[in-house]
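User: Just a sanity check before I run the rest of the batch. Below are the structure tokens for the first item. I only need the designed sequence back.
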């Protein structure tokens, strides 16, 4: 009898997790702590006692989205659907002073490195206190940290480091996440083994600059050593590396990826621009020649590689000639995966002080021209996969109008890249995380379709 009463009085907590994969890991850790402290984690944030929104603040649009979400939750609070509201992460890390006065309905503001105290903070909030817990972001979790999964069980993000020591002139992330700090190799390996025991087939390594891994504790770049240890873990099928930084993407890292059977031949390396003038104004420590050689090195050492990159258009001072250099580079490099952002004015970034800020219309027009070019390239390049056989990790049943099941090849990270649709015999039942052999029969701008061969 007492058990039932206790369960009913459990405090229900709901989470809205915005932003990047690193922030998603923080959300999972926050909920892991709360679950361990006997809070009940609920899916529906509209029906909970305490709603938490983990925010993003790296560019204007992301801040606007975070504010919108907070405003929606304050409306639910006014309607009595939620009792308390906690705002966590990058937005309060930088802007809690303004937010405290602009959003008085919020019960707690918690910094990007302060969530380890979330259980105590919620206790104080429930006791009617307003809490502002925003310290210097120094925290980095370890393998023992409890985690509440917010992704499908067959893939997991593993944060190998947090923070960043670089000073790219357009970026305020180091002000939001702090300086670079790596987790020891044995600790990442221990977590990876636990995640794979719990069903993860794909481990996605993330950080602000994963190629800087280890520099802070042994003054050596140790990513190859970490990758080799992770590649030796039996139950893991795929290991994917995100957020490489051009300067540190060494041949040693590329050769380790090329010679490791579980590490996807997938290189995610934001290049941002190609014009040496722009790269210098962005404070990227590389020039045009370096970037050209880097792409050549990647394609030489990993012939079947899929390169994902991102570019910023409309950076202060970008001329038509700078932009045309970028168009020519994209035409020549034929990236498999490409994202483009318009330059976002950030008052706390050093680039905000530069002259030559560009009109929003011109920025949008350049983004459109570059994405249209990439669409043509991607459609053309995808044709070369017809007839080839790929391992496809199943995500689930294909949406209405599409054949069989939907999945991803090694060329596709979750949520950002393309999909492969696998036609299967009526009777075949597949589950998320299954890896099947699929022969490609057709291609589109960003997606592929194919026929199921076997599930080896
Ligand atoms: S590498 Fe540059 S863009 Fe990336 S998080 Fe660090 S400062 Fe920002």
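Assistant: Here's the designed sequence for the first item:
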């Amino acid at each position: 009898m007492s058990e039932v009463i206790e369960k009913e009085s459990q405090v229900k907590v709901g989470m809205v997790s915005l932003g990047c994969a690193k922030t998603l890991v923080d959300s999972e850790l926050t909920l892991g702590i709360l679950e361990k402290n006997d809070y009940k984690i609920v899916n529906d944030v509209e029906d909970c006692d305490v709603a938490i929104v983990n925010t993003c603040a790296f560019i204007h649009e992301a801040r606007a989205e975070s504010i919108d979400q907070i405003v929606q939750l304050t409306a639910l609070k006014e309607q009595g659907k939620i009792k308390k509201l906690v705002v966590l992460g990058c937005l309060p890390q930088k802007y809690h002073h303004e937010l405290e006065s602009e959003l008085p309905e919020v019960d707690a503001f918690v910094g990007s490195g302060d969530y380890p105290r979330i259980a105590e903070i919620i206790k104080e909030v429930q006791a009617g206190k307003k809490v502002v817990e925003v310290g210097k972001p120094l925290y980095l979790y370890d393998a023992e940290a409890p985690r509440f999964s917010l992704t499908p069980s067959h893939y997991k993000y593993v944060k190998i480091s947090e923070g960043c020591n670089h000073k790219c002139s357009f970026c305020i992330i180091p002000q939001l996440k702090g300086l670079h700090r790596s987790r020891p190799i044995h600790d990442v390996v221990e977590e990876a083994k636990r995640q794979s025991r719990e069903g993860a087939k794909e481990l996605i390594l993330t950080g602000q600059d994963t190629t800087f891994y280890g520099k802070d504790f042994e003054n050596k770049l140790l990513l190859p050593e970490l990758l080799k240890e992770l590649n030796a873990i039996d139950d893991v099928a795929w290991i994917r590396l995100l957020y490489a930084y051009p300067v540190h993407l060494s041949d040693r890292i590329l050769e380790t990826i090329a010679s490791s059977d579980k590490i996807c031949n997938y290189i995610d390396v934001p290049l941002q621009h190609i014009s040496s003038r722009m790269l210098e104004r962005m404070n990227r420590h590389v020039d045009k020649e370096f970037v050209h050689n880097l792409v050549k090195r990647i394609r030489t050492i990993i012939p079947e590689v899929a390169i994902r990159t991102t570019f910023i258009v409309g950076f202060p001072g970008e001329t038509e000639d700078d932009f045309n250099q970028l168009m020519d580079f994209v035409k020549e490099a034929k990236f498999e995966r490409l994202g483009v952002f318009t330059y976002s004015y950030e008052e706390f970034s050093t680039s905000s002080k530069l002259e030559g800020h560009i009109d929003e219309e011109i920025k949008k027009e350049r983004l459109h021209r570059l994405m249209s070019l990439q669409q043509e390239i991607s459609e053309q390049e995808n044709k070369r996969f017809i007839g080839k056989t790929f391992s496809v990790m199943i995500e689930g049943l294909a949406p209405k109008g599409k054949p069989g099941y939907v999945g991803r090849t090694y060329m596709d990270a979750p949520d950002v890249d393309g999909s492969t649709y696998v036609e299967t015999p009526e009777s075949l039942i597949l589950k998320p995380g299954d890896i099947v052999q699929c022969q490609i029969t057709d291609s589109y701008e960003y997606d592929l379709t194919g026929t199921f061969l076997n599930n080896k």
